[in-house]
Amino acid sequence: LLLSLLLCALIPFTQAFGPNPSPSPPAWCPQGVARSSADVQSLVNAIKNEPFIDGREKALNQGLAKSSLGFDADDTLKILNLFTFKDERIKALHSIQPFVLGLTASEIISIINSYPFSDDKIEVLNATCSLVLDLLDNKDAIENAFTFTSDKKTALEIMIECQPRSCMYGSVTAKRVIFVVDTSGSMGGTFKQDGKSLTRLNYAQEQLREVINDQLPRMTGRLFNLLQYSTSVTAWQPGLQSCSPSNLQSAVKYVDGWSAAGSTSTYAALQAAYKNSDLEAVYLLSDGMPSDKSQSDILQAVIGWSENGKKPCNTIALVEGGSESGSQKADAMNFMQSLANQTKGVYRGFGP
């Protein structure tokens, strides 16, 4: 009887204070090609060789500009840990953020647990929450990495205010930005995501909707536009627009109406995007080679349109699934990476 009473008494206790929730697995988000270990070590050495803050910041920015490839979780933290003081770490985080492929909730929890003091744990979460791909799905698990009630409350507030991160687009940091999306016939190619089949275009639409709803309105004064292209180019609006609720709703409706058909007029699409003289960055998503101009013609033109990288063309190659051969997919990914390299943008690849 005594044992039964004890077990009954323990049930509500374990329900209220029982085992901390484990992070749920992140949604399908294959991490693209990261920088080589040799490139990362070269950057680390360059930063270490600078004794002053300004020198370290300069070394970081110069190293970032050398490649369009991103950083995986371990390399991201290796670089951030070179910046000792809070203010310089925040600056470094802002610089490196577009290049980070993403952290998972499990990885951020491991990082938080590696720090012994509450203030350090809070600072780590504050500095890195925008890098976590599955943050919103795992708030409880991350909150439980903190011991004290006050820290749990602060952690939850940080996560609620933190800008969500897109698998395909990362963190969109430009204030005046244009999204250019390939809607050619090959974007109807299918692949499996978390056990369900969907088209490349379905996935691109889903990711762009998240960026429009979750990221764009978080920056005061942000302006944006959307272009979709196949055989021809169509713009959502004639120029950059504010992130008013009605504009965001209209943009999502525009994205929802896309369908996959036609060829791939990449030159015409980028030409139309860069006609907006006050833009800061372009995000180009495509799954194939251009059909309206040669690669070399497009690369040469975009270098000029981007003003030698002052207005970067960030590229996303979505070649997962579909019917193309391995060599065709490789050619498409190489072309998209070259576009980002030549304009000082960031490249993300989704495919074999």
Explain what the structure shows.
The longest helix has 17 residues, at 326-342. This protein is of the alpha/beta class. The model is unreliable at 1-18 (pLDDT under 50). It is globular and about 60 Å long. Helices cover 46% and strands 12% of the residues.
Helix and strand arrangement:
Elements: H1 2-17, H2 37-48, H3 53-64, H4 73-80, H5 86-96, H6 105-113, H7 118-128, H8 139-143, H9 149-161, E1 176-182, E2 190-193, E3 196-199, H10 200-215, E4 223-229, E5 233-235, E6 241-242, H11 245-256, H12 266-274, E7 281-286, H13 295-305, E8 313-318, H14 326-342, E9 347-350
Parallel strand pairs: 1-4, 1-7, 7-8, 8-9
Antiparallel strand pairs: 2-3, 4-5, 4-6
TL;DR?
The protein is α/β, with parallel strands linked by helices and 352 residues long. It has helices spanning 2-17, 37-48, 53-64, 73-80, 86-96, 105-113, 118-128, 139-143, 149-161, 200-215, 245-256, 266-274, 295-305, 326-342; strands at residues 176-182, 190-193, 196-199, 223-229, 233-235, 241-242, 281-286, 313-318, 347-350. Helices cover 46% and strands 12% of the residues.
Q: What spatial form do the alpha-carbon principal axes imply? A: globular
Mean pLDDT: 88
Order of helical and strand elements: HHHHHHHHHEEEHEEEHHEHEHE
Give the count of helical stretches. 14
Helix content: 40-55%
Classification by helices and strands: alpha/beta
What ranges have pLDDT less than 50 throughout 5 or more consecutive residues? 1-18
How many strand units?
A: 9
How much of the polypeptide forms β-strand, as a percent range? 5-15%
Q: What Rg, in angstroms, do the CA atoms define?
A: 22 Å
N-C termini distance: 62 Å
Main β-sheet description = 7 strands, mixed
